[in-house]
Design goal:
21 strands; single chain; 21% strand; 2 domains; globular; alpha/beta; six-stranded mixed sheet; 465 residues; Alpha-Beta Plaits; Aminopeptidase
């Protein structure tokens, strides 16, 4: 059974229609909104294709009334009739999306899936509903045209990725035998300005925290600032001890476990292109931090930890003036982590830093922690997937790691399977921002790429993978 002997015709209208169905369900995990509805829609979509599908839960049915329970996970499976003892490929995706705000900056309704030329707009168009649909359409191609898949296929589609995948490790542990696979195709992959897909072998980790400083029992008249300490200044002073003016994190031992890139990894970084001018133009900036250039930019994205202020809130921020000394100040910080950095160890280092610098009155809350995951460059699946991408896109790029974060470490650790990220999300598709879009031509190419990946894995001798 070989798709190479067939012309791969993609049902573009069906692809668009299915994506629109999913975009129209505002499955915002931050608000716990429409998650089960979206999960059920995906199950029905899978069943319509011929994929055995079900919803999986962590809790028993009598516990499902609690508002704190995690959303269901969609599981799909197609067993190969012709090659039941062959390899198993697992697709990991997510059905939850980011909040749509600020709504006034959208040119199109965020939950409509409006098509304008080669673009389809909507929250989740690229991240991650568009990518999911390409995987589903690849399976539909095999079942519709050949009546079978050449290898075993599994799907995991979760509903909490946009809020940190807090429960994915529990799902992987509870259903470990069910999920076992030889290779995991990750939820997304970028396509650069030269129309080349970036095949990423890793993702950074994350430590997300909230710092809170308490002042008076209520907001008070600002004339009392001579007597009552402003918690906003307290937060600012604490923040100033954590990072220097070049962005280096000053917390003791923060970089202790960070390792230098190997010789082979350095070669890959050297060969990875990065268009500085178009990047600056897209984001409206004139320079990078510390005036980074060339390889320094790429190394920063791949293997440097970060300390980023995600949100800062205190006092009055409405129109006009209101002269108060606020009673509370809060800052949200996300730290990107690299391999070997343990989120809990880093959290303890942050707590110790604040205490040692006289800020033990500031409350530190850990919101989420996730370790970095990475597949080795010499993993045999890397070449199979790159060859598949090259067949469809003409050329591709290998990247050591994405600058973003996802639960890749849990999959590598608990399923003992390599994870490789490849997809069709245009690098400037405005994910997490107003006017998020997917390019229809890239959705088509990604679907074809998934078909090639499946077929090429099936034709690679088991002994060589």
């Amino acid at each position: 059974m070989s798709s190479n002997n067939l012309t791969i015709d993609i049902d573009t209208q069906g692809l668009i229609t299915d994506l629109q169905k999913l975009i129209k369900i505002p499955s915002v995990s931050a608000r716990k909104q429409n998650l089960e509805e979206c999960a059920k829609e995906i199950v029905e979509m899978m069943k319509g294709i011929g994929i055995e599908a079900e919803l999986l839960h962590l809790l028993e049915s009598d516990q499902k009334n609690s508002s704190s329970i995690p959303p269901p996970l969609v599981y799909g499976e197609v067993k190969s009739k012709s090659n039941p003892n062959g390899k198993t490929l697992l697709f990991y995706n997510h059905y939850d999306v980011q909040p749509e705000e600020p709504i006034d900056l959208w040119d199109y309704e965020p939950f409509e899936g409006t098509v304008d030329g080669n673009l389809i707009y909507g929250r989740g168009a690229s991240d991650d509903k568009g990518e999911l649909v390409t995987r589903l359409k690849a399976i539909e191609y095999f079942l519709k045209n050949l009546g079978d898949v050449p290898i075993n296929i599994k799907f995991i589609v979760e509903g909490e990725e946009e809020i940190g995948s807090n429960n994915i490790s529990k799902y992987l542990k509870k259903y470990n035998e069910k999920f076992k696979a030889d290779i995991v195709i990750w939820e997304f992959g970028y396509v650069d300005q030269e129309q080349k897909p970036i095949i990423s072998l890793g993702m950074k980790g994350l430590l997300y925290v909230e710092l809170t400083a308490q002042g008076a029992s209520r907001d008070v008249h600002s004339s009392l600032a001579v007597l009552i300490e402003n918690p906003a200044w307290r937060i600012i002073k604490a923040l100033s001890t954590m990072v220097d003016d070049k962005g280096k994190i000053l917390i003791k031992d923060w970089y202790k476990e960070v390792k230098e890139l190997s010789k082979e990894e350095n070669i890959v970084v050297d060969n990875e292109p990065f268009d500085e001018d178009s990047f600056k133009k897209e984001y409206g900036i004139s320079k990078f931090i510390n005036n980074l250039k060339g390889k320094g930019i790429k190394k920063a994205l791949i293997c440097e930890p970060t300390c980023n202020i995600s949100g800062l809130n205190s006092g009055y921020s409405g129109p006009g003036a209101k002269t108060i000394t606020p009673s509370k100040a809060m800052v949200k910080i996300d730290f990107r982590l690299v391999p070997n950095m343990d989120p809990m160890v880093q959290f303890n280092r942050l707590q110790n830093h604040l205490k040692e610098n006289g800020f033990d009155d500031i409350k530190v809350t850990k919101i989420h922690g996730e370790a970095a995951g990475r597949t080795e460059l010499n993993n045999r699946y890397v070449k199979v997937i790159q060859n598949s991408a090259n067949e469809i896109f003409g050329d591709s790029i290998i990247s050591i790691s994405s600058a973003g974060t996802g639960p890749m470490f849990d999959f590598i650790d608990l399923l003992k399977a390599p994870c490789i990220s490849i997809g069709g999300t245009y690098i400037f598709s405005r994910i997490h921002s107003p006017n998020e879009y997917a390019r229809i031509d890239l959705l088509e190419k990604t679907t074809k790429c998934m078909i090639r990946i499946i077929d090429n894995i099936s034709k690679t001798p088991l002994s060589s993978i």
